[in-house]
Structure formats: C-alpha cells, structure tokens
Amino acid sequence: MAKMVRAHLYISGIVQGVFFRYTMTKVARRHGVTGWVRNLPDGRVEAIVEGPEESVKKVIEWAHRGPPMAVVKKVEVIWEPYKGEFSSFQIRY
Q: Is 29 assigned a catalytic role?
C-alpha cells in the first residue's frame, strides 16, 4: 500500500485570476488526491493536498508550473501528518 502524506502549499507569483484554483482542482482529482485550494488576500494561493505520496508529489510538481497564464515564483511546501479528513478535492472561498 502506498504511503499516505499531507502537504500544505503556499504558491506565490501571478497565481490569482489565471484559473489556478480551477486547474489545480482538475489536476488533483486526476491524480486521486483530496484536500482544498483557495486564494489568499495577499495574492498567494494556499492548498492542502492529501493522498498517496507519489500522487501528492505530482500535484506539487504541477504547482511549480501552474496553468498556462500563471507565473509561479515560489512554492512553499510544508509536510504535515496525514489526517485523511477530506473525501474530495474542492475550491474553498
């Protein structure tokens, strides 16, 4: 069985108004991970991604690029204990 992990992400750059949250939701669901993504008032995007380690790493890899119109400057990844608290991946408002 795959090791289950949880990553807390803070993505900086031109990441709001470029379909980052929408596209990340599609990518996360495609990789079978759960969690959420939201915009922060300071212009960053925050996300929590839980699931099999390889799948979470794929979503983090995507976050370094983002959707076509994004300009990602930095992705801060904080590894946290896996909780398994989500049933899907959602956009939070």
A: no
